[in-house]
Amino acid sequence: MKKYENSVYQDAKSWPFEEARKLLSRKSIREKKYALFETGYGPSGLPHIGTFGEVVRTTYIRHAFECLTGTKTKLYAFSDDMDGLRKVPDNIPNGEMVAKYIGFPLTKVPDPFGCHQSFGHHNNNKLMEFLDSFNFEYEFKSATDCYKRGILNEILLKALIHHEEILEVMLASLREERAATYSPFLPVSPRTGRVLQVKIEEYKIKNGTVVFKDENGELTELPVIDGNCKLQWKVDWAARWVAFGVDYEMAGKDLIDSVILSSKICKILGGNPPDGFNYELFLDEEGKKISKSKGNGLSVDEWLRYAPPESLANFMFASPRSAKKLYFDVIPRQIDDYASHLRNFETQEPVKQVNNPVWHIHKGNPPRSEAALSFSLLLNLVSVCNTDDDELLWGFIKKYLGNASPEAMPFLNKLVHHAINYYRDFVKSKKCYSIPLEWERKALKDLLAELDKLNGTESGDEIQSIVFEIGKKHAPADLKSWFNTLYRSLLGQEDGPRMGSFIALYGVDNTKKLIEEALIRK
To answer: Residue 211 is inside which H or E element, if any?
Structure first.
C-alpha cells in the first residue's frame, strides 16, 4: 500500500475517516492496544447484500482508523445463531420440514438445503464464503458457540445480578401484554430444546439460576450459564459489547431505538457502549425494505452474476446515510462509476486519493485502470449483436481499441461476460423496436447520409458531434427526444449509450444497416 504523509489522513473528509475519528478518545482502545469492530448477522434467512454492506462499510472505517493512528484492529462477524426460529423464510426449499422446528435454535433446525449440519450452519457458511471471497480479515463468532463454551458466562451472571435494572430499562419500551411476561433471559427447554419466551417465576442470584414453567407446565430451574439460557436480543447485544469490549458497531436506521436501549443496558453491565452510526435501509424495486426471509431485493450471488465485486463495494461506499434502491437496474451504473473512480485515481493528489472510493475499496492499493469501454456501451453492443459469443464481441472491441485482448484486459473480459448475462436475463425479453414518425424518418435519413461520408477512422467524439447536429436540426427544442428515437429505433430499448462511441465501436457500416432496417420497418 502506498504510504502518505499523516497530514493527508488527518485532512481526509470521506465518511470512513469521519467515523474513524470518533474512536480516537476511547480509553478501551488504549487499554487493549487494538480497536475492536463488530458486525451482527441474524441467520434466520439467507445472507443478502444488506448483510454484506454492514461488513464492508465497517471494514472501510477500520482501515481508515489504522491509517489515522497506526493502531491494530480486529473485526468480529457475530452470528446470532442461537436465536429461536420464528417463521419459515419464503425463499427456502423444504419449508414444511423446517416448520416443525419453530422455536428451536437455528443451529438445531435441520438444513433445508441438505448440505450442512443445520439451517444456522448453512447460512453462516454462506456469509463466510462471501466475506472470504473479498479477502476480509475477520473472526467469525457464533452465539451458540459463545454460550455453550461459557465465553459469556461471566456476563450472564452479571445480567442475573442486575436483572431488575435491566427490566426497568426494557419494560418502559414494551406493550403491556409483552411486559407482563418479559425477562432478560430465554430458557432453553431441557425437555424439548426450544428457546422459550416465558415469564421467569424466580431469579435465584446466589444459585445462578432462574425458575420458569416449562412447556409441560412444570416449574423448572435452570442455570443461566453454559447455554442453558439465552439473553433477549437487546440484552444479548449489550452483553456482547461488554464481554468482548466492542469499540464500534453500526446498525440500520430501523434499530435506532434498539441501540439506545442496548447502550443503557451496556452501562448497567459495566461497559462503555461502542461508537457507530445508523445507516439507511436498502429498498427493493417497489421501494420496500429488503428482507432475508422474503428474499426480495438482490442476493450476493445474483449481483456477482452481472457485475464484478468491486462494483458492489462501490455501491456500499456511496452515501450510507441515504436510502437506496437495491435492484438489478442499479448494477450498470455502479460498474461504470467504479471504473470512473479508478481512472481518476491515478491523476489525483494524495488528499483526493484517500477520499476516492477505490482507495477504500482496495485498502489503499487500487489496481491500474484499464483504458477500456463503459459497461453501458458493452451492454448495448451485446444487445445490438444479440449474441452470447464473446469472440464475436471481442472482434468489435479489438477493432475499436486497437491493441486489446482478453488476456491483456482481464477486467474488461469479465465485463463482457457480465454484459452477456445481464442482456440475456433483463434486456432481451424487453426489446421493442419502434416505427419512426415522419420527423424521425427525416432525421434518420440525414444521419444515414452523414455516415455515408465517413471513412471509418473517425473518433467517437467526432461522430457524436454529427449525431448532435442532426438532433439540433430536427428536434431543437427537445434533443432528448432525438436520442430516444435512436435508442428505440436502432436498439429496441428506452435507454442507451453515448451514440458516437457506440457507432465507433459497432462500426459505421453496421450502424447504417440498423438505420436502413428502421426506415423500412412496418
So the answer is: strand 209-213
The reported pTM is: 0.88
Q: What are phi and psi of 282, to 5 degrees?
A: -90, 145
What confidence tier does 129 reach under pLDDT thresholds 50, 70, 90?
Answer: confident
pLDDT (average), residues 92-108: 95
Alpha carbons 15 and 10: distance in angstroms, whole number = 13
Cβ neighbors of 4 (< 8 A, separation 6 or more) are 67, 350, 353, 354
| Residue 345 scores a pLDDT above 90 | yes
The dihedral built from the CA positions of residue 196, 197, 200 and 204, taken in this order, carries a sign that is: positive
Q: How many residues does the chain have?
A: 522
Q: Which residues contact 62 (CB under 8 A, 6 or more apart)?
A: 20, 35, 37, 73, 75, 248
Q: Is 185 helix (H, G, I), strand (E, B) or coil?
A: strand
Read out DSSP for 446-460?
Answer: HHHHHHHT--S---H
Question: Which tens digit of pLDDT belongs to each residue from 28-67?
Answer: 999 999 999 999 988 887 777 777 889 999 999 999 999 9
Query: 472 to each of 297, 389, 469, 480, 487, how far by Cα in Å?
Result: 41, 37, 5, 10, 17
In the structure, what pLDDT confidence band is assigned to residue 1 with cuts at 50, 70 and 90?
Answer: low
User: From the CB of residue 62, how many other CB atoms can be counted at a distance below 10 Å?
Assistant: 25
Mean pLDDT of 269-274: 98
If phi > 0 it is left, if psi is from -120 to 50 it is alpha, else beta; for residue 493 that is beta
The confidence score (pLDDT) of residue 127 equals: 84
Q: Which CATH class is domain 6-148+161-171+233-279?
A: alpha beta
Q: Give 336-342 contacts, CB < 8 A, sequence gap 24+.
A: 336/374, 336/375, 336/376, 337/311, 338/308, 338/310, 338/311, 338/313, 338/314, 339/369, 339/372, 339/374, 339/375, 341/314, 342/366, 342/367, 342/369
- What architecture does CATH give domain 438-519? Orthogonal Bundle (1.10)
String of DSSP letters for 427-448: IGGG--PPPP-HHHHHHHHHHH
What does the alpha-carbon distance between residue 344 and residue 219 come to, in Å, rounded to a whole number?
68
Nearest to 492 by CA among 444, 428, 448: 428
Statement: residue 126 has pLDDT above 90: no
Measuring CA to CA, which residue among 66, 60, 56, 1 is closest to residue 29?
A: 66
- What pLDDT, on a 0 to 100 scale, did the predictor assign at position 292? 53
Question: Predicted confidence band at 162 (pLDDT cuts at 50, 70, 90)?
Answer: very high
The alpha carbon of residue 116 and the mean position of all alpha carbons in its chain are separated, in whole angstroms, by 24
Per the DSSP assignment, residues forming a β-bridge with 74 are: 36
As given in the structure block, the three cell numbers for residue 357 are: 472510493
User: Which is nearest to 136 in space by CA: 63, 40, 45?
Assistant: 63
Give kind and range of the element (H or E) at residue 325: strand 324-325
Please give the Cα distance from 406 to 411 (Å, whole number). 8
Q: How confident is the model at residue 4 (pLDDT cuts 50, 70, 90)?
A: confident
How many Cβ atoms sit within 10 Å of the Cβ of residue 241? 24
